[in-house]
Amino acid sequence: MYTQKDFEKFESVLAYCKKRLPEPSLPSEQSLETAMQYGQKMDFFDSRNKLSQSGELLAGLLLSTDA
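The chain above was modelled as a monomer; its predicted structure follows.
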């Protein structure tokens, strides 16, 4: 079962990946899909679109700077 914290981790990593996209002019749905592909290439998400170990570490860093 996923918790609110798991969702926050996923969203923070996805937002990070979206910021890294070279073309912010893509439609919202397409940019999210492209952000997921980027995240998979960078090994932040696994093949089931769940946070990988490195994605968990990145989420920890991102969320600790937001606090």
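The chain has a mean pLDDT of 89.
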